[in-house]
Design brief:
This protein is an alpha/beta fold. Helix content is 43%, strand content 18%. The longest helix has 18 residues, at 36-53. The structure holds glyceraldehyde-3-phosphate.
């Protein structure tokens, strides 16, 4: 705690909390891009926060990504989490299996002795497939669950990098560029003003559902994400708690 005070981390946390107008910013010392252990620290802090904020029988929606996945080792079967339900916030990811929401919720729930819900769908659905699927009972049930979520845990990505990771078509990548997409979170792309400019047509948690969750935990760090984080928080849910690292925070504050 003394290090955090002396290094200016506490002051940066306060500054960013004010600039973003959110519930809280927590900064982990170091640079996750250079040092893998820093990413683990992000996960550790996120797991601690989750324990503090989770209500009984919490419904917790979880997106994919390596930052969110880093919480896994720090979750345990404390009473407050053992009756939680971890819900995959989206179907597929066109991304590495380890970092898909479906994989993550099953791992989290095992650590906590909790329950989980998965949703296996392609990341990109045609208009017809989407229309046909959204009335299926299993999908309806998932959508109802999203309406009742208490906590959302999500990562934030740089738009271009996420489009590549999702193997988006050339055409989609071009659309993103034209629309000035800077950030990505839970399937939405945002421009530098934090406005939604693109949304993947897939079954998953919707932005209005994120906005009405009691708590939102965002985990994101890396100098290459600084602009994305800045853009995303122009317009993010005010109940969000951001967990990031020292390098990212100072990059944002210098911009
Ligand atoms: O939506 C953003 C991504 O989930 C971020 O993924 O944590 O692996 O960078 P990452």
């Amino acid at each position: 705690e003394l290090y955090r005070e002396l290094s200016g981390i506490v002051a940066m946390e306060q500054q960013l909390t004010n600039i973003f107008g959110i519930a809280r910013v927590i900064i982990v010392p170091g640079d996750a891009e250079q040092d893998e252990t820093v990413k683990q620290q992000l996960g550790k802090v996120a797991a601690q926060v989750l324990q503090q904020i989770a209500p009984a029988k919490a419904k917790i929606a979880v997106t994919g990504g390596s930052s969110v996945a880093s919480m896994k080792e720090y979750l345990s079967d404390v009473p407050v989490l053992s009756d939680a339900n971890f819900i995959a916030a989206r179907g597929g990811m066109g991304d590495e299996m380890t970092f898909q929401a479906n994989t993550i919720v099953s791992k989290f729930s095992k650590r906590c002795g909790a329950t989980y819900r998965t949703l296996f769908l392609p990341e990109h659905l045609s208009e017809q497939a989407y229309e046909a699927m959204k009335d299926e009972p299993i999908i309806r049930e998932m959508i109802t669950l999203y309406e009742q979520v208490d906590i959302v845990i999500h990562g934030i990505g740089a738009a271009q990098e996420m489009a590549l990771r999702r193997k988006s078509s050339q055409q989609e990548q071009q659309i993103l560029e034209e629309k000035g997409a800077v950030a990505e979170a839970f399937g939405y792309y945002f421009n530098a003003d934090g406005d939604i400019v693109h949304h993947l047509r897939t079954i998953g948690i919707q932005r209005h559902q994120v906005n009405k969750a009691q708590h939102v935990l965002a985990i994101a760090a890396g100098r290459n994400k600084a602009a994305a984080i800045q853009a995303y928080f122009k317009n993010a849910a005010p109940q969000t708690i951001l967990i990031t690292d020292e390098q990212t925070a100072s990059t944002i504050l210098k911009n």
